[in-house]
Amino acid sequence: MRYQPVIGLEIHCELLTDSKVFCTCQNEFGGSENTRVCPRCSGMPGTLPLLNQGAVKLAAKAGFATDCTVHNYSSFDRKNYFYPDLPKAYQITQFESPICTDGYITVCSGKKIRINRIHIEEDAGKLVHDDYEGISMADYNRCGVPLIEIVTEPDFRTVDEVQDFVEQIALRLKYADVCDARMEQGSLRVDVNISIMPEGSTEFGTRAEIKNLNSLKAIGRAIEYEIQRQSEILDNGGTVVQETRRFNDNHGDTKALRSKEEAHDYRYFPEPDIPPVQFTDEEMEEIKKSMPEMPQKRFARYTEEYGLPNDDAKLIISSRAFSDFYESAVKINPDYRQIANMMLGELNRNLNDTQSTIEDAKFSPAELAKVVKMSSDGVISKNAAKDILTIMFNNGGEPESIAKEHGFIMDNDASGLEEIVDKIISENADSVESYKSGNQKIFGFLMGQVIKAAGKGANPQLAKGLLINKLK
Hints:
Elements: E1 3-14, H1 53-65, E2 69-70, E3 73-74, E4 77-80, E5 90-93, E6 100-106, E7 112-122, E8 126-130, E9 135-139, E10 146-152, H2 159-175, E11 188-198, E12 208-213, H3 216-235, E13 243-248, E14 253-259, E15 269-270, E16 277-278, H4 281-289, H5 295-304, H6 310-317, H7 320-332, H8 336-354, H9 365-376, H10 382-395, H11 399-405, H12 414-427, H13 429-436, H14 442-454, H15 460-471
Parallel strand pairs: 12-13
Antiparallel strand pairs: 1-10, 1-11, 2-6, 3-16, 4-5, 4-15, 6-7, 7-10, 8-9, 11-12, 13-14
Helix pairs in contact: 2-3, 5-6, 7-9, 8-10, 9-10, 12-14, 12-15, 14-15
């Protein structure tokens, strides 16, 4: 039988605050075990939580970034469960009144994936398993790290839709400075809820939850395995059990962890020690004004107004810093295509070769815009523009000064260039004869010899015209 997968996501994102959500311990990745722990985040008796207002504002920004309704009023609840990495035996979260609801993101298939809610909560600690000694140890550094959980509706039907959604979420949160979305470090983790139903059916099957997936590739492999596993169970007349499972990246399969809890199992009740959060309309407007333009809106502008190819626009928006640099450059010189070509070509090559980022560049967007203008105005050749950019990248400097110093200013004197063309033709008689016999490819060799002899200040169009005429 053919089956249709039904998928929903719960995405946990660590917020970029300096301190934890209910105490003043540092919020950062790594470090020695249990070195960023205090009585509050370790759940010692008699301690009281103190809400980090910065975390609440970042959660609101996440809502604006995902077209959610961000509420002026939200409140906290206790989610009760026992696990060794949760020392309080309950988690402070938002259940009844989350800060954001009813958002959406349009994915690659054109479908709008609905976001049910975004709520704030604290992270748990981390268990470190020592298989050799047969023990597990608890590291509580992560306890109390501020999280948002983004909960979608079960609107996904394909792996591509899921991966595109996660990619878009990560990019939007990075643009808004909400989360660095480093999946390899666990700052963005994805739980996948997946069930299958016969094609044509409208009744969802029993779902399994796959916990803590930390790469797009792992998400895809876990979903594909789970579809296969559940299909085989149903084909053999069995029943899929509702449970929480863990994906093994090495084996490419999922294993059962525990039965899947429902909301009533957690015995939610209002958090008595934290008053509700209430934003004024003025405060909400202030947060909204602090938001940068989101990547999907930049993509639409780059393709529809600037005429960039989709692939180029997608590459530019893949980093907010890179996109901001492009934005600044085209405000000065609105040569949208050529500036994009220079950034995606020569600039990216230099960044990759030096394993650096756009923030490390030793020149400004205005200087890049100047190089492109000098090239389009015929002051320098396109090849010289690339050389100037590389010099600026390595050493800084002003484009016109570099062009003069290195002889990149184009010489439009036809008489001097004509002498060089004559000399190249006379020194390469065999190649000239081959060209006249129909070997058109040899023209590139002859042209290269002319430019080499004339230097980078030669006007390539003038040289090409003279060479064609002489060869006739």
